[in-house]
Design goal:
There is one protein chain. The chain is built from 11 helices and 13 strands. It is about 45% helix and about 20% strand. The chain has about 300 residues and is of the alpha/beta class. The mean pLDDT is about 85. The strands form 3 sheets. Strands 7, 8, 9, 10, 11 and 12 form a 6-stranded mixed β-sheet that branches. α1 packs across α3.
Amino acid sequence: MTVAIPSLNWLRVFEAAARCESFARAATQLNMSSAAVSQQIRALEDRLGKRLFERHAHAVTLTEAGRAYLPSVQQALLTLESATDGLFGTAPDQQLFLRVIHIFAHGVLAPGYGVFMDAHPEVQLNLSTAVHNIEAAQGFTDMQIVFGAPQAHGAEGDYLLGEVLYPVARPDIAAQISTSADLFDYRLIEVATHRAGWASVFDHLDIVPAAARYSYVDSTNVAMALAADGVGVALARAPASDRAMREAGLVPCLDIDLIEGREAYHLIYPSRAGLRPAAKVFRDWLLEWSVEFERNRAL
């Protein structure tokens, strides 16, 4: 049975009461009476058919159902607040809501963030990150930086950077790997969400990975962390992963040519003509920064 979406005001009261752990404190924060808060919480519970709070003498605590419901309510309210402020708040043309795949934010965007803000102090950049594209598509944004097929995420977009792959490991492990066969003495850490991975490496080396042992993870940052702890050999995905690789203290294994990946990073948005001024400024800067970033890395 489908339950109708509850009143927005009920959800706002629920979130405040959960955060304050008190109907009275929530009432003060919302400029309501305690009785009104209690009444709206009861209406929400009736609508959902579940108790959300355990009532105590001077406080309330969330039930299991309440704890499960709270994060989604908070995210929905935050998304609505961000969208409203961005579109209708003070100087909306200078607001920019940007959601970025985490490794790109960490490895490519962060080094240029201060450069952009110094050049454009009038822009209010609201940056959020996501590990996967499906997360990047959630909530209100002016623009997104995604990895993979751009047409799946936005009507228009721009190519930013590709990726090249090569094996990396802790220096003591890398020193033990002088031939491709030596790779199979270690666990191979695979990012399962990428189209290009260890299979691409083995195709490039023209070997059959019959003895390979894999550990699967969902992000390159985690792969680098595991490699840094000696779990095995990871794949660098340059240039976005260069910073994570340095911070993890990893070095290349084997002297092989860089292997071209199958996907790339793209900046996407609903319509270039419809971009707000801050988004247009950022787009122009990012296209130049991506070229400069890749050029400097190659030097």
